[in-house]
Amino acid sequence: MANIAFILLCHKDPEAIVQQAEQLTAVGDYISIHFDARSPKEAFSYIQNALKDNPNVAYATKRIKCGWGEWSLVQATLYAIEAAVNAFPRATHFYMVSGDCMAIKSAKYAKEFLDNDDCDYIESFDYFESDWIKTGMKEERLIYRHFFNERKNKKLFYNSWWAQRKLGLEREIPADLQVMIGSQWWCLRRRTIEWILDMTRSRPDVMRFFRTTWIPDETFFQTLVRHLVPEPEIRTRTLTFLMFTDYGMPVTFYNDHYDLLLGQDFLFARKISPEASELKEKLGRLYASEREDFKISNEGARLFGFLSGRGRIGRRFAPRFWETEASLGRERELLIVACKKWHVAKRLLGSIKHHTDIAAIEYLFNEEDTELPELGGIQATLEKRTRHRRALMRMLFDYYNTDRLIICLDTASLDLMNDFFSDRSTTRLLEVECDFSDEYLIGHAKRVGLAGDQTGDETMQQLLPTIRYDVLHESDRIRDAGFENHLRIQESAMPDENMAAIAAFLSVSEEVARGVAQTPYLFSD
Fold it and tell me: Please, which of 72, 222, 248, 525 could form a disulfide with 66 given CB 3.0 to 4.6 Å?
């Protein structure tokens, strides 16, 4: 069975470090600690004294001062690894953690997970071909030498870089290396760790290169593992669950995230709030338990994006000049059916096509595979359709050789409604108000990835009120927009009550409108 040696880099909160070490070693695993040399000696002495009787604890062969983006982080990791390899000959896996990490599965589950697949877990994406680096320096991290800490000596850091650039002092990447990049939270087998240590001794050119790269903790292990280990034995993923906000900051987990964390397909999570005492206590007990019944739903990242984005939806950026200057045409009528239940809107559109000759298109701005004519590529993706929405609509009016066209929009597409209603053309909106049962909302959450088949009942019950409010809030925002020619039909109304709105929306007789309103099973789920 797998025996894990945890490699812990830390710099604060010695009491929490002691607690973390005791929890991880209580089931027979090991831990090797590097405590930043910048931190007080008293804090490190506290850790040593508290753990002095624990044979499963070791310390890095040397303590050094660490700085963000520096080689020192990799060097500290190597010192901790060396200590672990020497102290724990029975360790089969080496797992990198921080003081903010905690297990979200039991040790039994984690060991069986590692035993079931003889491989290394590390994010390692091609440095130049992937889009792992979103902004800032990319090639410059490697081809120039970085001697200064960007955060502490910003002026020196950038002056050094510009000087090298001006003087043409670029350097070559070691010829036999394909530089990779990824998260520093990896789990590697003992054989792989020993190969890496051997390479640090036998390849001084590689060590010199990485010592002066910028942010080498994202490239050093990722590159060496891919260089040393056959590709079939590498899983390009981390076993530590972590998320980032829109501003690039790590998401912090609190007491009410317990069920969400347990449902993710990971063994650890980062980062746990120091104030989340209840969560830390429950997770601490969890690792030492024999629990195996984890229901993996994996909805964490999408759920976070959904919940954190509630306050921002509806913010509309200024339209681009080619959109404001391009009208659909003063003489044209755009008819919008807005409905959260897409199958209801599609059923309604089918009935309209049956009773009238008005051209109609389903959710072309919401659904990638909506059937559209070939329009020179502008219709190829949702991104293109939305970016060039007015041009697309003009082309569709021309393609169908009509001045009246119906489209469907999700009720969340307020920005599109605003744009079309600001055009010189005539725009009408028919909002289809449906009833939403808990069963439907649960299905909706699963369809959009907010939940999975294994999502726990407690998590789902916490999620349902938010989804229900969100759906109702979309309708409120449409009303608050004050659109002219805004009509509504309701699932709770009788067909004759909906008939008048349909007649006004389509500009048809009562007889035709009644036929549409009486569409069999119109609102059926």
Answer: 72
Longest dimension (CA), the chain: 89
Name the region of 471 (left: φ>0; alpha: ψ -120 to 50; beta: rest).
alpha
| Element containing residue 428 per DSSP (H, E) | strand 426-433
State how beta strands 180-181 and 333-338 pair: unpaired
Helices H / strands E in the chain, number of each: 21, 17
Structure tokens at 278: 């209840």
Residue 178 pLDDT exceeds 90: yes
CA pair distance 290, 285, nearest whole angstrom: 10
pLDDT at residue 256 in the model: 79
Report the predicted TM-score, pTM, of the whole model to 2 decimal places.
0.63
Beta bridge partners of 94: 5, 188
Return the structure tokens found at 180: 């990779």
In whole angstroms, what is the distance from residue 396 CA to residue 358 CA? 13
- CA separation for the pair 82, 151 (Å, rounded): 29
Tens of pLDDT, residues 39-61: 999 999 999 999 999 999 999 99
DSSP classification of residue 8? E
Within 10 Å of residue 150's Cβ, how many Cβ atoms?
A: 18
- Alpha carbon distance 263, 450 (integer Å): 12
DSSP state of 93: E
DSSP single-letter state for residue 180 = E
For residues 21 and 84, the answer to whether their CB atoms sit within 8 Å is: no
CB 261 within 8 A of CB 105: no
CB-CB neighbours of 428 under 10 Å = 21
* Helical H segments across 219-341, by residue range: 220-228, 258-262, 277-288, 300-308, 321-324
pLDDT of residue 325: 42
Using alpha carbons, list the distances in angstroms from residue 99 to 270, 399, 455.
9, 61, 28
Provide the 10 A C-beta neighbour count for residue 57.
24
